[in-house]
Amino acid sequence: MVCATRTDASTDATTLAGIAASDDVLATYWREFTGDGELEAGAAMREALDWLRQVLTAGREADWVVILAG
Description:
Layout: H1 6-17, H2 23-34, H3 41-59
């Protein structure tokens, strides 16, 4: 869940867009953080970061952003 002002959403979206970690680096972070050696962790984290960036980008011009996933 993300609660952010328009300004914060914009700043956070820009920050996420600037992440330049490779899938290997993201997978290593995941493995160290969770102890899970999932082979697709890096790609999954990259997709998650991109999805969150898209949500925050939508929040730049909105009063509310509601996301239903599942």
